[in-house]
């Protein structure tokens, strides 16, 4: 899989992507990262990439020409990537979207800046607009990194399937509580069942705790799973 990011701050990505699991994905030829400084595609001698918006308003807007020039260069390479623009105006990122995006062989992520991106770039090249939440950041660089991290860690061979199958959201629930040594920290003890060695009881305990945490923190997820998953409804009935 090739993941390309169009950004104004290449150094931010170079530092993060050289760490641990993400770097392992590159070394094992599972993922290729290409971080492009979109300023390199500027069409004027000052390398300008922003300008004031038509109609007035505060702030600056990313100009369309550098992006058109970049995507035209891909056409010459016969590349047809799936293009994502990370923006607060996009569809909210969730596990279902990650599952779909990780299957793309060629993914381009546009990281916005300033007041956003000229709409003509979005209309012409963007396949999907994605938001990481209902809030605004100073740029799309952190959301782009979130997207890369979430996709990369689920590529086959990066981490074990067992590791991410117990993650929050993978099965529609939040993750269960985790404990490590020591087992006894004064009055704070690890639940006895986790020390029992009884794998069936441990699985049941973790499932119950996962359901309890989801009901408490994300009741919307429980409602959705009850509506969509008949087996889950039966398991909940058995618990009650």
TrEMBL record:
The keyword Translocase does not apply. This is tRNA (guanine-N(1)-)-methyltransferase. Residues 1-223 form the tRNA methyltransferase TRMD/TRM10-type domain. One of its GO terms (cellular component) is cytosol. It catalyses: guanosine(37) in tRNA + S-adenosyl-L-methionine = N(1)-methylguanosine(37) in tRNA + S-adenosyl-L-homocysteine + H(+). The gene is trmD. Its EC number is 2.1.1.228. It comes from the Bacteria. Specifically methylates guanosine-37 in various tRNAs. It is an enzyme of class 2 (transferase). It is found in: Cytoplasm. InterPro entries: Alpha/beta_knot_MTases, tRNA_m1G_MeTrfase_C_sf, tRNA_m1G_MeTrfase_TrmD, tRNA_m1G_MTases_N, tRNA_MeTrfase_TRMD/TRM10. Keywords: Cytoplasm, Methyltransferase, S-adenosyl-L-methionine, Transferase, tRNA processing. GO terms for biological process: tRNA N1-guanine methylation. Belongs to the RNA methyltransferase TrmD family. S-adenosyl-L-methionine binds at residues 112, 132-137. GO terms for molecular function: tRNA (guanine(37)-N1)-methyltransferase activity. Homodimer.
